[in-house]
Design a protein that fits this description.
The chain has 114 residues and is mainly beta. It has one domain. Helix content is 5%, strand content 27%. It is built from one helix and seven strands. It has a five-stranded mixed sheet. The relative contact order is 0.37.
């Protein structure tokens, strides 16, 4: 296994969308229909929580909402931690939006919608 892939295999990133937390990060308001190929960068809207014990799951993540912080504040404790990400999205258009998540440097991601 290459040195680049090893950390990626050890980190489990879970995206929690539409999950309200106590951490401060802006909410993404979608005010106009997104056309095919339109990109929305989620970085300003992401909150993160590092789970160094890799013990949490979706059944107890609500209890950890106070632990989420803006992604720029993260100081990783371990390269083998699980990282839980959250972004709040509000669709203010009158139509259903079809959105796609894309990641440029991850090999494994679980996505949960709340």
């Amino acid at each position: 296994m290459t040195p680049i892939l090893r950390p990626l295999n050890l980190i489990c990133c879970c995206i929690l969308l539409l999950f309200a937390t106590a951490a401060h990060a802006d909410t993404l308001h979608i005010r106009q229909p997104q056309l095919n190929g339109t990109h929305i960068l989620l970085h300003p809207y992401l909150k993160i929580w590092e789970d160094p014990g890799r013990q949490s799951d979706t059944t107890n993540i609500f209890q950890r909402s106070f632990s989420f912080q803006p992604i720029d504040s993260l100081r990783p404790q371990s390269r083998t931690s699980y990282y839980w990400l959250s972004a709040d999205l509000i669709n203010e258009t009158a139509i259903t939006q079809s959105l796609t998540l894309a990641f440029s440097s991850l090999t494994f991601v679980d996505v949960y919608l709340y």
